[in-house]
Write a structure and sequence with these properties.
Shape: globular
Radius of gyration: 30 Å
GO cellular component, one term: membrane
Helix content: under 10%
Number of helices: 9
EC number: 1.4.3.13
Organism: Cyclopterus lumpus
Protein name: Lysyl oxidase homolog
Oligomer: single chain
InterPro entries: LOX-like_protein (IPR050912), Lysyl_oxidase (IPR001695), Lysyl_oxidase_CS (IPR019828), SRCR (IPR001190), SRCR-like_dom_sf (IPR036772)
Length: about 750
């Protein structure tokens, strides 16, 4: 059963893995592919193109031309988007997106074959564009041009080998691993089988006489697997005897560090006669090793979450499995990588290290949110065969690097088919709607709704991730305004409780077959809306450490704070002329995410507090707690968001939110909101606290009212010493910023991933 809507190509799935299932009744047949190879006159110079260099994606790179038995480059003089269009179409891509001068993808080698190109964009090959003439140039390799092509391929594009007996770039319509043995056919993901190439609309096998382990490594990487392994060749020999294979005309020659098969060279044509089998060989078989998060285990089935037992590297801030900002552990502290020289090769090393396949994209410029703490690595250069990014060459000096240059990755992950068992129904666009799940009932598969009791942000996050739609932006306990499929009104899942890291809603805790839902389904079913981006609030620990002090304040000056429950429970018996001892500090809360932080409640539902004369857009925005060293809470406070606004912003970013005159509240990306130490409730009441050593803790957005890309950094902890007269605050740090060993010296909560309902 296929989902009727496929998400944006942000989440690349190997659709061919499911082609054998066919299409549901009434589903339109796929469009027939039409591609006509260009007809060139005999006097047209025969060239071949490829994209090379320090690439971040397989569909971009330095333009290289093969002519006269040598690879060379193209000069950027007079180069335009029209020339880029010709390059991309000649390589089988639908169109050009952009081009870059001045050797952005590194300096090439060999001749500079083209200079002063004047293309109209309609030429069938770059060789037909007017230029100085092939090989006539006054350029240096510092002027080598690069292009970025669209992700989409020309339907039915067929590689035409115009230069026989030379290794060329492979251009294929599609590739798949087809499970052959019955023991692998029902397994998800597909890890072993024939490697098949779609050629002229037909799936063909590859002859294994020239196949290498490097080729298998690239195939496995494309399908989301970090490595390959040996398989039982005898069984496949028997199968090939019974069913005659149809072979592809070419051999493949990969070096082993490519991110995609399209970067490998196409070997010499096998020039087989009709009906001839692969002489002395068999169809290529690969057997891939799935990463730990996708490997079936006898005891538990698939691993239910993708929490990495991260040794030295982790991903943060990504919406889906296998993407995020790259962070490395050094000297017990997590830090980021500067994007100088960041390439697809280095990104692939990270992906494989974390149990994913090759990299789809190497992202730069803090595209998946900015980190905190140090920048540990700069100018990273990998060969592609390293076991860890920490083994690659890098510049230890990160001078001039800021978190605006944090590197990130998107990795190929195995096609698990999770999207097939979940859908959003009735929404105004594909990013919203009532949640409907596919479950087995009485031996048949039926669609139904999810009970909205206890439905919250964490559950919605899992739904959006499972569908490849990014982050949750809102959760809904009523969906009467989204009329879904009437046949799917019945509740088929209840009691859903997610930690937020699961890959599928079915992996969350739920009631199973014993449903319990007082509200019922239909109009009261759970719903979500998703967004490709989310905010990420992070507290500045240095500001807390530097601004902490104590104040003894008379009770008669604390009446408004008392009404808002900002004092300890014992204060209700305190006489008006007594004093309360307050531990005061400032909070500077940054939005390091990709979208603005806005309160869930609209202005019409903000609560007016007469005493303080202001509105609360979130009743509990932050929690303040003091714990003993064994984790027992001894004092607490909280702060409502009476004013979420942009106090200051990074250079070049304008403030958007201001509380004055009942203005819009929020925190813009790249800005921060400062709650000064001298405002009401910006404290913990420690009047009854005994002298000793404590853990001080702040949690932002503790009830997950507003979805964020990363909740682990919403917590901040400090060591605190109180001798009855003075207070010291030291070793302040954000959750997840230190190694597990260092973090364990701080008792209490490790991060903000805790049960909150």
């Amino acid at each position: 059963l296929l989902a009727l809507w496929s998400p944006p190509m942000k989440y690349h799935l190997a659709v061919a893995q499911y082609e054998h299932l066919g299409y549901p009744a009434g589903f339109p047949d796929p469009e027939q592919e039409h591609y006509t190879a260009p007809q060139l006159t005999p006097d047209t110079p025969r060239i071949q193109l490829r994209l090379a260099g320090d690439k971040r994606k397989h569909n971009e790179g330095r333009v290289e031309v093969f002519y006269n038995a040598a690879w060379g480059t193209v000069c950027d003089d007079d180069f335009t988007i029209h020339a880029a269009q010709v390059v991309c179409k000649e390589l089988g891509y639908l169109e050009a997106v952009s081009w870059s001068p001045s050797s952005k993808y590194g300096k090439g080698q060999g001749p500079i074959w083209f200079d002063n190109l004047h293309c109209t964009g309609k030429e069938k090959t770059l060789a037909l564009c007017p230029s100085n003439g092939i090989g006539i140039s006054d350029c240096k390799h510092s002027e080598d041009v690069g292009v970025v092509c669209s992700d989409k391929r020309i339907p039915g594009f067929k590689f035409v080998n115009t230069l026989p007996n030379h290794n060329l770039d492979i251009q294929v319509e599609d590739v798949r691993i087809r499970a052959i043995l019955s023991s692998y056919r029902k397994r998800i993901p597909v890890t072993e089988g024939y490697v098949e190439v779609k050629d002229d609309g037909k799936w063909k096998q590859i002859c294994n006489t020239e196949w290498t382990q490097h080729n298998s490594r690239i195939i496995c990487g494309m399908f989301g697997f970090p490595g390959e392994r040996k398989y039982n060749a005898r069984v496949y020999k028997m199968f090939a005897r019974r069913r005659k294979p149809t072979y592809w005309d070419y051999a493949v020659n990969c070096t082993g560090n490519e991110a995609h098969l399209s970067s490998c060279k196409l070997g010499q044509g096998t020039s087989m006669k009709p009906n001839e089998t692969c002489p002395g060989g068999l169809p290529v078989v690969v057997s891939c090793v799935p990463g730990r998060d996708f490997a079936p285990t006898p005891m538990t089935g698939f691993r239910k979450a993708f929490r990495q037992e991260q040794p030295l590297v982790r991903l943060r801030g990504g919406a889906i499995v296998g993407e995020g900002r790259v962070e490395v552990l050094k000297n017990g502290e997590w830090g980021t990588i500067c994007d100088d020289n960041w390439s697809l090769l280095s990104a692939t090393v990270v992906c494989r290290e974390l149990g994913f396949g090759t990299a789809i994209e190497a992202l730069s410029g803090g595209r998946l949110g900015q980190g905190m703490g140090p920048v540990h690595m700069n100018e990273v250069e990998c060969s592609g065969f390293e076991k860890s990014i920490t083994e690659c060459f890098f510049n230890k000096e990160a001078l001039g690097c800021s978190h605006e240059e944090d590197a990130a990755v998107r990795c190929n992950v195995p096609a698990m088919g999770f999207q097939e068992s979940l859908r959003l129904s009735g929404g105004r666009n594909p990013y919203e709607g009532r949640v409907e799940v596919l479950v087995e009932r009485n031996g048949s598969l039926v669609w139904g709704t999810v009970c909205s009791d206890s439905w919250g942000t964490m559950e919605a996050m899992v739904v959006c991730r499972q569908l490849g739609l990014g982050f949750a932006s809102n959760t809904f306990q009523e969906t009467w305004y989204w009329p879904g499929e009437v046949s799917a009104d019945s509740v088929v899942m209840s009691g859903v409780r997610c930690s937020g890291t699961e890959m599928s809603l079915s992996h969350c805790l739920h009631h199973g077959a014993h449903l319990s839902c007082a509200k019922g389904g239909g109009r009261n079913a759970a719903g979500v809306s998703c967004s490709e981006t989310a905010p990420d609030l992070v507290l500045n620990p240095q500001v807390v450490e530097q601004t902490t002090y104590m104040e003894d304040r008379p009770m008669f000056m604390l009446q408004c704070a008392y009404e808002e429950n900002c004092l300890s429970s014992n204060s209700s018996q305190a006489p008006a002329n007594s004093y309360r001892r307050l531990l005061r500090f400032s909070s500077q809360i940054h939005n390091n995410g990709q979208s603005d932080f806005r309160p869930k409640a609209g202005r019409h539902s903000w609560v007016w507090h007469e005493c303080h004369r202001h509105y609360h857009s979130m009743e509990v925005f932050t929690l303040y707690d003091l714990f003993t060293l064994n984790g027992t809470k001894v004092a607490e406070g909280h702060k409502a968001s009476f004013c979420l606004e942009d106090s200051e912003c990074d250079e070049g970013i304008e403030k958007r939110y201001e509380c004055a005159n009942f203005g819009e509240q929020g925190i813009t990306v790249g800005c921060w909101d400062t709650y000064r130490h001298d405002i009401d409730c910006q404290w913990i009441d420690i009047s009854e606290l005994k002298p000793g050593d404590y853990i001080f803790q702040i949690v932002i957005n503790p009830n997950y009212e507003v979805p964020e890309s990363d909740y682990t950094n919403n917590i901040m902890k400090c060591r605190c010493r109180y001798d009855g007269h003075r207070v010291w605050m030291y070793s302040c740090h954000n959750g997840g910023s230190l190694s597990t060993e260092t973090e364990q010296t701080f008792p209490g909560l490790l991060n903000n991933q805790v049960t909150h309902r």
